[in-house]
Write the structure tokens for this entry.
Amino acid sequence: MMFDNFLEGGRKMVKVEICVGSHCSLVGALNILETLEKLQEEYPEQIQIERVECMDMCENIKKAPVVKVGAELITSAQTQMVISKVMERIK
């Protein structure tokens, strides 16, 4: 079961953790992070971004980049997929 955090006025807030370790960074995490930061400018109180050095998924490099949106872990993450998941949670 997924629980959302609510702000005053009924708006939802989501925490996004993005792995910025070496391998994830090389395969696209920094591009995802840049896009998330732009989106955060539009929704400053609703999106919290946390850079994480490693999410213990490095044993299988095919899973990179790794992003966690709320409680949902996304492996082989792509920018549009991550943005869609974030928007689902804040709308």
